[in-house]
Amino acid sequence: MISFKLTYLCIIVAIISAACAVGNKSKLKVKKENLLNENGCFCKLQGEVDDCSCKVKSIDSLNNHMVYPRLKSLLSRNYFRYFKVNLNKVCPFWSDDSKCAMRNCAVNICPEDQLPDGLKKTSTKNKYTEESQEDCQGDDLGYLNTTISQESEQAFENWTKYDDAQETFCEMDDDTSPHMKYVDLLLNPERYTGYKGISPHRIWNSIYNENCFKAPEQPAYNPQALTDYTLEGLCLEKRAFYRMISGLHTSINIHLCHQYLFPATTCYGKEEWGPNLDEFQRRFDHTQSNGRGPQWLKNLYFTYLVELRAIAKAAPYFEEEGFFTGNDEEDMDVRQGVKDLLKVVKEFPNQFDESKLFIGNKKEAKALKVEFREHFRNISRIMDCVGCDKCKLWGKLQVQGMGTALKILFSGDGMGPMSTVNAGSKKKFQLRRTEIVSLFNAFGRLSMSIHAIEEFRKLLR
Description:
By secondary structure, this protein is mainly alpha-helical. The chain contains 14 helices and six strands. It folds into two domains: about 375 residues, no CATH class; about 35 residues, no CATH class. About 55% of the residues lie in helices and about 5% in strands. α13 crosses α14. The protein is globular and about 65 Å long.
């Protein structure tokens, strides 16, 4: 009897041990799959940034702990939240024939008095807005909120007078246009709008196919792959140009993945904004992007270093800037916040070194610099072809911010990590308000993207 019980007990223990072993193997398999997935997106986010001496890990630490929290606070201030832009310029390359996708909120027509103000002005009958027993939430995801308070409108008049009194370095193309309007960036965050299909594909295809440099022996880019081509055979300047654009493209895609609209799970539920891990992996996972996604993520870090270096180089200028809005207390807080950020930026070693660009044969270097500038100007014009107002707003802002960074890098007392602009005299260098606002907000978008990468990394774990 005792022997039978012992045998029975041994059998039970064996079964439990086997079950535990299977469970452990299952957990190990899950962990292994998670590791493979993480490596699938982030396998190249290690070591040094291409064509730079700075390590990815150092940038992650600087940005996520020092830069991002400072920028997030600073960009919520009035000086940086209002961006003056012309969204009515006609596309100079083709006729825009597409609009941002819109969402259905329910089944029945939405009452007129429940429509958002912006939609009332454009259409009294909208097939995409439906009636519901709850308050209607059926607005266009690409709808641009142009609400500006009366107090802000009055303050803008003083801002314009202040700008006009300054000696400018160059004239912005649209600055005197009657179509230039202030937009509140906090009311119009960059996030998923549903803008997809032929129109955005044509935008990026035109940027990469017609404006990015390529080696003479390379064929035309594959329209389906967009950025799928090798940089072999390109000089440093042309590689830098491509990586900046690719990094910008990557940053924009990260914003769309990080602020994604999830549909309601029930009939009476509400949509929710949040990070979409599946969408992030679809765009950047090694296996789902034909091996290109991880390099795109690394290009983001290159673009970040370029704009970081521009802000560091223009630090003497920004330390003298008044950041005028008419509110003395807030202006003083902004100046202090900017100085705090600049201190962090200036102390970061191994920044992008612009002195390595456009050297060698003077004639060839000069011609390349002109070509570099013309290509970038063309990309800024392509932004007027974007078919979604909110996408166009953020596209124009970020391209203008990058253009301002390039303007800073190739101006001033010299080239290289120790050179500056406006070291003691505002007469040597000048930035308009829109250039300053676009530069800081563009850098803020890159900063947010790198911060979001860490969040996606944690989600994968």
